[in-house]
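sanity check this record:
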Amino acid sequence: MKVNVIFEDSECVDIIEVPYNIFELEKIQSDFFKWIFDKNINHKYWIIENGEKKYCSYGTDAFIDWLNDTILRDNNEKAYILKSNTSNYNENDKSLYF
């Protein structure tokens, strides 16, 4: 299933492909946000200043990596990016806003 990933500070979108057995994408996105902003979790998306985790710098790849490593860990089909930074997308497809 194609899903548009829309970042508020960009005029273009990323289009990802996720397996059709993925349901409740908004809840999955919420779980991703809980994970990425949890300062108790060490991941490569933290920006560290003076030894302290200040904020996260991430893109669609972070969501895809997390989705494949958690929700789709035991699934043969994985999510992936079809197109990056495109203005040519189907507005009728499901969209996630970051």
Notes: The chain has two helices and six strands. Strands lie at 2-6, 13-17, 46-49, 52-56, 80-86, 94-97. The CA atoms of residues 8 and 98 lie 7 Å apart.
